[in-house]
Amino acid sequence: MVERILADVRKRGDAAVREYSVKFDKIDVKEPEVPAADREVAVAELDSQTRADTEFAIDNVRRFAEAQLATILPLDIEPLPGLHLGHRVIAIERIGAYVPGGRFPLLSAPIMTIVPAKVAGCREVIACLPPNAHHAMIAGCHLAGADRIFRIGGAQAIAAMAFGTDSIPQVDKIVGPGNAFVNEAKRQVFGPVGIDQLAGPSEIFVLADASGDPRLIATDLLAQAEHDVRTRVGLITTDRSLAERTATEVTRQLETLETAEIAGASWEDYGEIVLCEDEEAMIAYSDHVAAEHLQVHTSDPHALAAKLCNYGSLFIGENASVVYSDKTVGTNHTLPTAGAGHYTGGLWVGSYVKIATHQWLENEAVLKVGPPASRQSASEGLDGHRKAAQVRVDKLRQWSAA
């Protein structure tokens, strides 16, 4: 189905997008772009506390992204006399941010995808969100800094951003999580456009020893479990008593949790408690899982954290709950899942820039690097390469001899 949607939108553009919105969202969106006046109305309709909290989160995400960007520096070196190598940090020109609708209005979602793009210096950020998404989500996109906002969701939104239509510009990279259809659409369009990652169901694991607090651990596990019935949640511990008390506490808290229908199913089908012989085994299992969110609740959490290698984001000490990162502290909550923490981190300001190398050579450098480049090309049977390397060497030698 996704392949068919992508091909149809690529061929018929806005007409196909509109038809799929009617089919899947049950809404006929005649003008997909949200005009400036409607954006302002959406912001005005936010209650004052929600707006203040949203702007607090935006400020924190911006500050952290600015600090990260300051670590990504241009480079110019001269490894040999006359040989100049370097790179530039170049912002990606146009970003497409997919903002999921979901069961609840997740105002943090546009903050995490849009704010770092603006900090990076991207010229234009396009936001797409399902036409039936909560009106507050438009306000979130606007406050986060989206240049243009479109009421288009699903695979058709990914197709529109990837290929462009009369209404929606083609982007260079698509970021942001979505449902299985959005995820598959991102996978299929990758190549002509970049993507951030393929997001699976959310994950949280807690590493704990005998000092762990079962009430806090159970609360954090269930907080993440309420995202989706397929959320993977787990406790890795060296203490049997803590394992047993945490299991009891999860059961107790589910009795009063308003989202128990979702969180309980997640715990029942994907919850796990792993009892390890020692800290070394606990670390090994954690690094094998490479959890999206990894909390450390031990007597010396910083020491244990320093030994961990594979995770999406690390939460050191019992005060560092995942919910703070999800919403307001400033680190990004778009993180690798399904073991991708073995090879990548999460979305960050560096996801919105390119590190593009350059080089230039003075004459003395040509005489150093040219001959070995010519010989290597000849050994590889690439005569055109050999000539391109040698012609400059010969020219300089003739000039020196004249």
From TrEMBL:
GO terms for biological process: L-histidine biosynthetic process. Keywords: Metal-binding, NAD, Oxidoreductase, Zinc. One of its GO terms (molecular function) is NAD binding. Signal peptide: none annotated. It is an enzyme of class 1 (oxidoreductase). NAD(+) binds at Y98, Q156, N179. Substrate binds at S202, Q224, H227, H293, D326, E380, H385. The keyword Hydrolase does not apply. CDD domains: Histidinol_dh. SUPFAM superfamilies: ALDH-like. Its EC number is 1.1.1.23. Its cofactor is Zn(2+). One of its GO terms (cellular component) is cytosol. The keyword Isomerase does not apply. Zn(2+) binds at Q224, H227, D326, H385. It comes from the Bacteria. Binds 1 zinc ion per subunit. The active site is at E292, H293. Belongs to the histidinol dehydrogenase family. PANTHER family: HISTIDINOL DEHYDROGENASE, HISTIDINOL DEHYDROGENASE HDH. NCBIfam families: hisD. This is Histidinol dehydrogenase. It comes from Sphingomonas suaedae.
